[in-house]
UniProtKB/TrEMBL annotation, chain A:
The lineage of its organism: Bacteria, Bacillati, Actinomycetota, Actinomycetes, Frankiales. This is ABC transporter permease. Keywords: Cell membrane, Membrane, Transmembrane, Transmembrane helix, Transport. InterPro entries: BPD_transp_1_N, MetI-like, MetI-like_sf. The chain crosses the membrane at residues 105-125, 137-160, 172-192, 231-256, 276-299. GO terms for molecular function: dipeptide transmembrane transporter activity.
TrEMBL record, chain B:
This is ABC transporter ATP-binding protein. NCBIfam families: oligo_HPY (TIGR01727), PRK10419.1 (NF007739), PRK11308.1 (NF008453). SMART domains: AAA. GO terms for molecular function: ATP binding; ATP hydrolysis activity. Residues 8-257, 394-638 form the ABC transporter domain. It comes from Frankia nepalensis. Keywords: ATP-binding, Cell membrane, Membrane, Nucleotide-binding, Transport. Coiled coil: none annotated. Its main location: membrane. GO terms for biological process: peptide transport. It is found in: Cell membrane.
UniProtKB/TrEMBL annotation, chain D:
Residues 1-34 form the signal peptide. InterPro entries: Peptide/Ni-bd, SBP_5, SBP_5_dom. Belongs to the bacterial solute-binding protein 5 family. One of its GO terms (cellular component) is ATP-binding cassette (ABC) transporter complex. GO terms for molecular function: peptide transmembrane transporter activity. The keyword Kinase does not apply. This is ABC transporter substrate-binding protein. Residues 98-461 form the Solute-binding protein family domain. Gene3D superfamilies: Dipeptide-binding Protein, Domain 3 (3.10.105.10), Periplasmic binding protein-like II (3.40.190.10). Keywords: Signal, Transport. Pfam families: SBP_bac_5 (PF00496). One of its GO terms (biological process) is peptide transport.
Amino acid sequence: MRSTTWWLARRLALAVLVVVGAATVAFGALQLVPGDPVHVMMGGAAPSEEVYERTRHELGYDQPLPVRYGEFLGQLLRGDLGQSYQLHQPVADVIGSQLWPTVQLALAAFGLAFVVAAALAVTTAGRRSGWRRVASAAELLMISTPGFWVGVLLLTFFSFRLHLFPVAGGDSLAGLVLPAATLAIGLIGVFAQVMREGLERALEQPFVLSARARGTGETAVRLRHALRHALIPMVTLSGWIVGSLLGGAVLIETIFSREGLGRITATAIAGRDLPLVTGVAVVAATIFALLNIAVDLLYRVIDPRMKEVVR
Amino acid sequence: MADSDPLLAVDDLRVSFATRGGPLAAVRGVSFTLAAGECLAIVGESGSGKSVTARALVGLVGAGAAVSARRLELAGQDLLALGERDWRRVRGRRVGLVLQDALSSLDPVRTVGAEIAETLGNHRLVPRSARPARAVELLAEASVPEPALRARQRPFELSGGLRQRALIASALAGEPAVLLADEPTTALDVSVQAQILDLLAARRADGVAILLISHDLAVVGRLADRVAVMYAGTIVEEGGVDDLLRSPRHPYTRELLAAVPSAHARGTRLAVHRDAAAAPAVAAPDAAGCRYAARCPLAEDRCRMADPPAIDVGHPAPGAGLSADVPRPAAVDLGLPAVEKGPPAAAAGPARGGGTAAAAVAHRAWCWRIDEPWPAPPAGPARGRVQHADDVVIEVDTVWKSFRGPDGSRRPAVRGVSFQLRVGETVGLLGESGSGKSTTAEMVLGLLEPDEGAVLLRGRPWSRLGESARRPDRHRIQLVPQDPLGAFDPRYTVERLIGEALRAPGRRAAARQRGRIVELLGLVGLDASVLPRRATQLSGGQRQRVAIARALAPEPDVLVCDEPVSALDVSIQAQILDVFADVQDALGVAMLFISHDLGVIYHTCDRVLVMRDGELLEQGDVERVLRAPAHDYTRALLAAVPRLGPATGQVPAGSGAGDAAPADGLGVGSNVGFGVGSGVGPRR
Amino acid sequence: MAGVARRSAGRGRRRIGPGVAVSALLVALIALAALWPGLLARADPNAAEPVDALLGPSGAHWFGTDQLGRDVYSRVVHGARVSLFIGVGATGIALLLGCLIGMLAATCGRLVDEILMRITDVLLSFPGLLLALLVVAMLGPSSTNATIAIGLSSAPGFARLVRGEALAIREAGYVRTAVTFGAGRARVYLRHLLPNALTPLLVLALLSVGAAIIAGSSLSYLGLGPRVPTAEWGSMLAQGKDFLTISWAMAVFPGLAITVTVIAINIVGRDLQRRFEGRHPVGRF
Amino acid sequence: MNIRIQGGGRHARAIRRTSTVLAALALTSVTAVACGSDDSSDTPAAASATPVAGGKLTYATVQEPSCIDPGYDPSTVTGVIDRNIFDSLVSQTATGETKPWLATSWTVSPDGKTYRFSLRDGVTFHDGTAFDGAAVKATFDHAVDPETKSLYAAALLSAYQETRVIDPRTIEVVLTRPNASFLQSVGSPFLGIQSPASLERSAEELCTKPVGSGAFTFVSWTKNRDLVLAKNPAYQWAPDAADHDGPAYLDGITFQFISDDTARFGALTSGQVNVINNVPAANIRALKANGSLQYLRADSPGLAYSLILNTGREPLSDVRVRRALLRSVNLDALVESVYFGEYNRAWSLLSPTTIGYDKSLEGTWKFDAALANKLLDEAGWTQRDGDGFRTKDGKRLTIVWRTGAQLDRDGRGVVAQGVQADAKKVGIDLQYISEDVGTFSQHIFAGDLDIWGGNYQRPDGDILRFAFASDQGITKGGGNLFGLQDPTLDRLLNEASTTTDEAVREKNWADAQQYVIDNALAVPLTVGANLVGASNKVQGLRFEQSSNLTFFDTWLDPTK
């Protein structure tokens, strides 16, 4: 118990480090973005000299870089993400209002991808049949097709032609279907292949032979014994999954005109909205770091052998 | 078998697998019967088809396999006619299967209790609510202490022995009439092995028919009533266990028995063949004639023309007739009549053999040449004739080493071990898993620094040196690893592998490098044809030969051999042990020979060190230590090993395996700490 | 049992299946298009003929024309160069950086390892596309910068893998035995550790070329790719989607080009992976 | 924009005259196209049916504002949204007349520097505050307050000195010098009157929660999704320019932000929204063919989308090269193919709906590749390199055209590629570089651009002064990006802004347009237009003179 507490404390400390690091990277990167930040912020409008100087001072750009970085860190550690340059709102509010739609999209896509992939994997693992070939081909196709293209095609067909789903935005369930499906398609292929490989590896294990020798049926063998082992590599992928979901959200939210973190980040980066970009970086890093901890805890649940959690 | 219908009847069983190169026959016409309360052992080397045979009996040979038989019946029911659903009703309920290595044979993420309950659930034997309790009962029946606790634990939390018991409990949960035990004791330490065999014997005494699959003749000798020897998918000889082990008639059986290293064989060659070319026991593509002919020293033309018929050997009186041609010492050491030894669990019950006398068992061999005398074992390089110079090459002076465990506490692996290794001698390092023998070896190799104490090389500091100071002398101590595949860079050819060792610092780069490599290969019985191959393209025996050649390349003073033969089949093991003997004879290197196998140690070593829990318990001349052990642990160890039994009555009968092991805190107890990763001590 | 079958299947040289053969051919063709597009498409990809705008596929214009009357087929062929450049270049950068970081982390002691791994953690905590966006914002949109951006954003993953492989191999028997021959650390790392850590990654790298191509086209789709009028599949698709209801060809063919290319690369990569796994005993990924 | 009238206050009457001209132009420019069959049994929507109150309208717009404080933000969409939330002192009809609104009447002092407004009684803001002179003062002071960092409203109030509250119903706005556009500016939504109580709030709240007295109240704004307005039921002070009195017909308006062209159009056809702007030109044929939709368009006044050429840098410092570029572009074919005839090609820098447009330029500088080649030969660009581009002294004829990625919309990137391809045909290596705004602004301020492409939406020809007068340099907040110092243009444009003589003004603007083309100072490309698609249900949609949509008179026909 003591070791678990110690482990958790260490992991949380590291998580804070990662979050600060991510914020620093975002801060640094935006310092290197070319162009005068004040001009960029004005979005191409030519301000008078007075307005320009005033804005510059208010944003602290008349201070030397180390001072600005120090203030930035101080703010961050106080939990203050600052005020968005372009949206004139506190970053925390902006992210707060945009986070949920993205999370909703990501969860829906993940759930969909997981269920479809698990079904594909469980039904086709270790079987040499035409159905498996079809499934594999479909997975390859899904992995190899750019999500934005799929999105455009789905949108054109289901929304423009058939009017089955809303074309843009929409917080309704129907509005979530196409974006989630598009985002899921990129994942299904990977999930199914990883799970199938895991299943096949598990199905080759002696314990599966033992289980069969006890008279356990094929379905029970797959669901009760093999699937759990196949989930372990899935858990390993979690970092990649979160990355693809959040990164994919940028494209999906743009194509489907959805509100959300991805789209707001893309515009924030383009508009050099430093506080918003760093804010998103902080949030993404926090999600990533907490998720990693959660995943390591999950490992222990899925596979009790993992007493010492691997980093 | 005449008096009643057998429980299990197998006639002309054939199994083949579809491969890219066409069907590959793994089992080609195997026939046997099994009666209730009887134990039939199928013996063979890897690839002989023995496991496939067992799995065919539960319909689990796998997809893409074709199974046929003239007769495959369980208690009169035709198994060949079963559909998948019917098979499920047979598996676990009427036929149980126990596999080697319970760590991987029990689902590692489920509790032991759940695994056992699964059998109960599959066959609806016990209502759902009563299953956990029944699982605990079953564990108790399998002599698992604290069964309620164990049922809640997962396989990795149990010691190897308990795990195997749990696995057996799960296989027996459905109270099957037949138990298929496929290498049930193979990965276990000897003392634990003995306990598992006792457990199986007890079940047999209860009337369970056991089909024992093993490569280990000693295990077979301890449990089986009858033995069938398989080679390349066919049974080449079968008979009562005593008959067969005492008077083997088929050349293959004879080769196998001769290959077992033991005290008798000191100073003799174990293998029939010196070179590595001998055909493996893997089923070869269909060809007429005896499969063994290619490797058989007695083969003649007709052997290669057609399959030899079964020839009844009869029941020779002990010591009479043809048995004189057989390497008798082996039989004496090995084939201990069960009635004499009597596993404790079976002591009260009927002797063995399904109620029929052992004498009634037919002894047959599929060979025309069973009457031919076996070539006398070629004399090996004489042992003990080498006068050991008093030059001490390696001096290990009270070394201590501990590792940090996962919980952060330090766990000692080696505790104050001291010994010396002299020029030209072979010192055995004997111990069970976790005894610290590998850690000791790594300190000798200079791969680990002792926490305390020192290793000296030719009287000069070795362990305390910095790496750069050690480097010029590195070549003096070389390693022959247990797993040569892992020890070879997978991208390297044999030529490059050995070439790398030749260029070791402190050696002049050999002028004619390639010539030297071929020369080294010759020393270990390989020719230049292996030069361009990679490790994965070599057979297990060839790999180990290359490993030895490579270790010899820098002209070392010392070879550290870390379980160099434990992963090999017995006939290959015999060849490799012969190579070691030749090498030492030719080069006079000192060897530190690590093994858990007393037979191997006995055969190979001049002196032996016995380790347990990081401590050196006893050391001395191998004859002295193994014949008259001073330490209780050594005694227990010897008692637990079937192959070095009290043929000469030297081990007190009172300290049989069953009594001695637990009393010494061996087996179960000693295994708890190092449960995971059997056979390998804690490594960094 | 099955081991018998598998062994003989694994030992024998794998035959090249028809799918793999076709894919390899396609990859060669795409490489040809990237190197000498003129061989496959005569028409100038940037020659605008507004009169011929938005034509459907025909004998004269196999894939039709875009809204400026440019030949879509020719643009698709010429687009191979940018896509392949991004795919290969980004993977190369990722591999190089990944190896450097991974090897340093695995061999230079705990402190270096800890520092480097925290840095990769930080980079990994950015979703890949966002990191790429940030880099492009820093460097400005162009195919070279997109390449750098994608390379940088996938480098941490490679670094992790290299480190993991290297750590596993460092414990492998052949590295330990190499030490007993008296080989120095540097030599062991260079001769054994690096090549063996790298080999499995090379196949993975081939597979990641496909992913990089998609990432590159995603950046282009968002308007951060090469400058106009350079033909690039992602930006062609972005333009074409506005005309999907009028002229399907404009958006469909560039999309197909991406998909077919990535599929072909993946099929070839996986085939290599399977061949390769057969003879590589250390660590899977 | 800074529109300054110099030279004293004798010219106040000219303002009215200007409005009249404007009105005439506006009349011709607004065209409502009924959808469906051409036999036109359908009368234009607003003509017959009786308006019905009720229903909510959803309007999908391409742009999303970053801040909807009219005193701060300059973007068009902010104006469109704020028009519904804020009332102005005066209103303008679609025909351009200035009519009373919150001011019932006004007078201008003889020197043109003081405007006295009588204010309407009984007006209350959405937060309950009563409208009075203090509100006007607070609004104008807010706009010019440096703290506000106004990007547009302050410029509308150029020469603003102060607002004097004479009594609650009477105010005087005092200017430092006459401003001919003052009344027009005051009618702009960017000078809509804000609740003085709300102006006490932080900039953030002003940006996100506007409080005015308009026909609609602000409800919510979800970034990247929509902005919702609800009917102000208490509204009884409709502008005189409007068709009806009392509250608006619509119960509410939802502005949906759909930047993707295809999606926006799809949202209209699928019925998800009622009205969209920036209909993709490619979809207009489909829109017209759709019996349940209507299509409306209005050309935008101001500077047409043009390329302003930098005469201060090689190679465009050579007038022959500039003329060659002007003549090398086959604009008719290009604009037709990109915009399907929905946008017109431009003949002048000013769009046809701009006050002062010179119609005589039309047809005077047709596409002539031969002439372009001849001019380039004359200019000494006679050699060709391996890629077919002209060279002189081993230097390629390269012209760099940079733009900010965000400015690259409405098919402009495609037009650019067409221009590029045409230029290549005469041997000019025109490089079109779309870059991020940061880099682009860096280039703008460094002045190292060869070409700047863009447009301005403004009512009259004074925009030419903003773009070309030598005192309108970029550091002074002007639009003369390349620091052009042309005495002829300076004279023509400055005189036009100070003269009281309408004829002189018209002539000067015409001469200036002519001069720009003669000297190829710019390449006019397309006339901007607001292309609107709407469901047939939507009635009473109106374009303002600016070509923006207004919704006060809009209603939804439940029968359709």
